[in-house]
């Protein structure tokens, strides 16, 4: 494994971690799996594509992508998930899958089924020493992703809203009795997760400058895998799982014999970890009260 492969793996892992944070926050606080989360990435990518097409300004494209994804995440929570707050997990799961297919269908009607190129600025390649070759976009992804994950961790642990999120995740009814606005906290959780997904979509486009209606499907599944590996509901676990999955993927892609089996190896790692530790690396066992 070369240093370039490892750095590329960390960069890809940062993307998976940002997406996984959305999964794990929603599950930890709202106790539901939002399988439409991956398609928020696709919406962010198409927002970047449309903004660049109309205005040609990357900074505005980034701002609009984050704003559109945040609004969409809150609307999805209010319209699709809030009425099912007391319903069975199966009903919520089916609704999430339905929302996912709805977003893909709307994107297909609006932009077509074929992939379209996204004209993001090209970043130069840095040659460090004789062997290390790193794209500047990789360093940007790694740096900004790390800062966002650290900032989110500090926000959850140190801020008043973050402590309210922890309280809701521990015991929703008790938090409500203590004056916490549970509906507001859950909506804010969807907003933060959607904003992180929008940022992840921009980083993803830096690596693969194309978008399609199914863009978010595989990154979403892999990010969910990363969240489960790290321990669903654990923010540090989502980061660890994302980085682990990104490094493993880049290593497998760099070895010709393992390249065709990259995805199978990633899911095999998930199976092995769950066999050894069913709650994930940093997951905690939940005690059911009777």
Structure, briefly:
This protein is mainly alpha-helical and 290 residues long. The chain has helices spanning 3-30, 37-54, 58-81, 89-111, 136-158, 160-170, 172-177, 182-207, 217-230, 235-254, 262-276, and strands at residues 116-117, 125-128, 132-135, 210-211. The protein has a single domain (3-276), classed as ABC transporter involved in vitamin B12 uptake, BtuC (Orthogonal Bundle).
Describe this structure in words.
This protein is mainly alpha-helical. The protein has one domain: ABC transporter involved in vitamin B12 uptake, BtuC (Orthogonal Bundle). Helix content is 72%, strand content 4%. The protein has helices at residues 3-30, 37-54, 58-81, 89-111, 136-158, 160-170, 172-177, 182-207, 217-230, 235-254, 262-276; strands at residues 116-117, 125-128, 132-135, 210-211. A two-stranded antiparallel ribbon has the order 1-4. Strand 2 (125-128) and strand 3 form a beta hairpin. Helix 1 (3-30) runs antiparallel to helix 8 (182-207) and helix 6 (160-170) packs across helix 8. The model has no long low-confidence stretch (mean pLDDT 87).
């Amino acid at each position: 494994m070369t240093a370039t492969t490892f750095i590329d793996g960390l960069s890809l892992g940062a993307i998976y971690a940002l997406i996984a944070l959305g999964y794990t926050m929603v599950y930890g606080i709202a106790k539901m799996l939002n399988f439409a989360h991956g398609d928020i990435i696709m919406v962010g990518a198409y927002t970047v594509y449309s903004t660049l097409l109309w205005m040609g300004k990357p900074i505005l494209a980034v701002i609009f992508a984050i704003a559109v994804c945040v609004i969409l995440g809150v609307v999805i929570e209010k319209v699709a998930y809030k009425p099912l707050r007391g319903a069975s997990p199966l009903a919520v799961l089916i609704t999430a899958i339905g929302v996912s297919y709805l977003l893909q269908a709307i994107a297909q009607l609006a932009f077509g089924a074929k992939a379209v190129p996204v004209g993001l600025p090209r970043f130069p390649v840095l040659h460090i020493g004789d062997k290390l070759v790193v794209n500047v976009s990789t360093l940007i992804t790694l740096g900004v992703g790390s800062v966002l994950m650290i900032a989110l961790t500090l926000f959850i642990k140190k801020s008043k809203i973050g402590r309210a999120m922890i309280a809701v995740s521990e015991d929703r009814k008790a938090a409500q009795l203590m004056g916490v606005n549970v509906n507001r906290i859950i909506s804010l959780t969807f907003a933060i997760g959607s904003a992180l997904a929008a940022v992840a979509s921009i980083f993803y486009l830096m690596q693969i400058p194309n978008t399609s209606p199914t863009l978010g499907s595989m990154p979403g599944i892999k990010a969910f895998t990363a969240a489960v590996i790290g321990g669903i509901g654990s923010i540090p676990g989502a980061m660890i799982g994302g980085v682990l999955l990104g490094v493993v993927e880049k290593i497998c892609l760099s070895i010709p014999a393992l390249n065709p089996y990259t995805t199978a190896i990633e899911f095999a790692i998930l199976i092995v970890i769950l066999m050894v530790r069913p709650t994930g690396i940093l997951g905690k066992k939940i005690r059911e009260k009777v």
